Amino acid sequence: MAPAQIALPLDWPQGDATRRFITSDANRLAVAGLAGWRDWPVRAAILTGPRRSGRSLLARIFAAEVDGRVFDDAQDHDEEALFHAWNRAQEEARPLLLVADESPPHWAPALPDLATRLAASPVWRIEAPDDTLLAALFALHFADRGLALPPEAQAYLVARAERSYWEVERLVEAIDRFAIAERARITVPTIRRALEARGQAA
Q1: Which among 39, 35, 40 is positioned nearest to 11, based on CA atoms?
Q2: Where are the beta strands (DSSP E) in the chain?
Q3: Which residues is 100 bridged to in the sheet?
Q4: For 97, phi and psi rounded to 5 degrees?
Q5: Contacts with 62 (C-beta within 8 Å, 6 or more apart), sequence order
Q6: 39-81: per-residue pLDDT in tens?
Q7: How would you class 143 by CB atoms within 10 Å of its CB: exposed for 0-12, middle for 13-18, buried for 19 or more?
Q8: N or C: which end of the chain has fewer CB within 10 A?
Q9: Pick from 147, 131, 128: nearest CA to 139
Q10: Strand, helix or coil at 197?
């Protein structure tokens, strides 16, 4: 079952990477913020969100389509390098996107000049997955394993899953392993038994 895909509100070609990024209310503001990069007050922005939320994928799509530059896990990079990259983005009018776990003030660089520049940069955040995105992610990750996810099984998972991108991937892997061991199809009863085997209420 293919994930329900909502077109990105961007005038970008729909390549393989773009098709794998699924939009919903959880990330729509972030997508729109990147689409409007020409209106940023400065030529640099910060993209935050939970890990495995698609933030790096969205950043790569953005950079490829607008000839921008990306620093992934920016909070772990050399601060002098980020400072110079921020300045260069202004000089060259080439957008810079910093992907980080947190935005200021939670991300507080020791370099004062970098902290000042980050404070001037717009921040776009991907939130925890909503039901629409959860459903699409379950379908996507099962499809990646060559497995069809029946609609009733998809609904069953969405109603019980933790709102976590990491947990979706771990849960799909656990169900797949359980189904292989049991030689069972992906059905609601199979998923129920897989959840019980993990010690989760089914």
Answers
A1: 35
A2: 44-48, 69-71, 96-100, 123-125
A3: 48
A4: -120, 125
A5: 34, 37, 68, 70, 95, 97
A6: 999 999 999 999 999 999 999 999 988 999 999 999 999 999 9
A7: middle
A8: C
A9: 147
A10: helix
CA nearest 149: which of 188, 194, 96, 181? 188
* Per-residue confidence (pLDDT) for residue 161, from 0 to 100: 92
**Complete DSSP assignment for 50-106:** -TTSSHHHHHHHHHHHHT-EEETTGGGS-HHHHHHHHHHHHHHT--EEEEES--TTT
Q: By the 8 A CB rule, do 165 and 137 touch?
A: yes
- Model-level pTM? 0.85
pLDDT digit string, tens, across residues 2-46: 333 323 444 444 445 556 788 999 999 999 999 999 999 999 999
Residue 141 sits at φ, ψ, to 5 deg, of -70, -35
3-state SS class at 123: strand
CB 21 within 8 A of CB 57: yes
SS3 content of the chain, % helix, strand, coil (to 5): 50, 10, 40
Spatial distance between the Cα atoms of 7 and 22, rounded to a whole number of angstroms: 8
Radius of gyration of the chain from its Cα atoms, rounded to whole angstroms? 19
| Gap between the Cα atoms of 93 and 143, Å rounded | 40
